[in-house]
Design goal:
The strands form 3 sheets. Strands 5-8-7-6 form a 4-stranded mixed beta sheet, sandwiched between helices. The chain has a two-stranded antiparallel ribbon with strand order 1-4. The protein has one domain: Thiolase/Chalcone synthase (Peroxisomal Thiolase, Chain A, domain 1, 3-Layer(aba) Sandwich), CATH 3.40.47. The chain starts with 7 loop residues before the first strand and ends with a strand. The chain is built from 11 helices and 8 strands. Helix 3 packs across helix 9. With 288 residues, the chain is α+β, with helices and mostly antiparallel strands. InterPro entries: Thiolase, Thiolase-like, Thiolase_C, Thiolase_N.
């Protein structure tokens, strides 16, 4: 769009994680290839270990992660009950059934229930290499395995006017960063700072945040670094409950962010998510 090559773009993504499990990071340690491995002779780590390292570095306890996860389930359950997702979600026919709700949201989730889950990524090899890890990351405070799809329609203001479309928001500023590939998931920290700087805005100017909940430790560490008000973060719930179908998450976050701004009357919204390997992006939108 910025280059002028297109007038109208549908930015979309899909992931069927139930059919195509991306398990190389889980099943073995040689998941990056020999050339990348040669640059990091000590070895990089799977995302789950990065999530554990983040929890250790930022001093996050198991109870904190589980409390965050429980809230992440309660928020979308309330949003569905209030009709806040009705405009966002298209019901899908699957045979004789119709899927209307996010299936991984569990309103009955509590800290006590989550406390009974075992660490998801414990391994003797990683425990020996990283003795500082407390092994607090579980299936309950991580994003589940989901299928999903999402899309957003983007045009220039001139094209929207010509086609009689009413814009809901404008893309204000964007940023992409590369960060520590060992911690991997922390790229959202500098991405947030960079996009705010580019926009000429402060954290206090942002009315709503969507920070991808690949792991609860990522969002809590992001909050500790930025000082953002968690009451403005993932207001209608996050990926810990809704899910993180990888290719669909960017558009899903943007859709939710826009809806939250409209529901709350906010002006600016900030979305950020990591893409593994230390990469992350951030986008600020302005509701119109």
């Amino acid at each position: 769009m910025l280059a002028g090559a297109y007038d109208v773009v549908i930015a979309s993504g899909i992931e069927s994680m139930s059919h195509v499990p991306i398990g190389s990071q889980r099943d073995g340690r040689d998941f990056i290839g020999t050339q990348v491995a040669a640059r990091y002779p000590d070895g990089l780590v799977p995302q789950g270990i990065s999530a554990e390292l983040i929890a250790a570095r930022w001093g996050l306890t198991r109870e904190q992660l589980d409390m965050f996860a429980a809230t992440s389930h309660q928020r979308p359950a309330a949003a569905w009950a209030d009709g806040r997702f009705d405009r966002d979600v298209v019901p899908l026919k699957v045979g004789a059934d119709e899927v209307r709700l996010d299936e991984s949201v569990r309103p009955s989730t509590t800290v006590d229930v989550l406390a009974g889950l075992k660490p998801a990524f414990y391994d003797d090899y990683w425990a020996e290499r990283f003795p500082q890890i407390g092994w607090h990351v579980t299936a309950g405070n991580s994003s589940p395995i989901n299928d999903g799809a999402a899309a957003v329609l983007i045009t220039s203001s001139e094209t929207a006017q010509r086609l009689g479309l009413k814009p809901r928001a404008r893309l204000h500023s964007f940023a992409v960063v590369g960060d520590d590939p060992l911690l991997m998931l922390t790229g959202v920290f500098p991405a947030t700072a960079k996009v705010l700087d580019r926009a000429g805005l402060t954290l206090g100017d942002i009315d709503a945040f969507e920070v991808n909940e690949a792991f609860a430790s990522v969002v809590l560490a992001w909050q500790a670094e930025t000082g953002a008000d968690l009451a403005k973060v993932n207001v209608n719930g996050g990926a810990t409950a809704i899910g993180h179908p990888l290719g669909a998450s960017g558009a899903r976050l943007m859709t939710t962010l826009l809806s939250v701004l409209e529901q709350t009357g906010g002006r600016y919204g900030l979305q950020t998510m990591c893409e593994a390997g230390g990469l992350a992006n951030a986008t600020i939108i302005e509701r119109l």
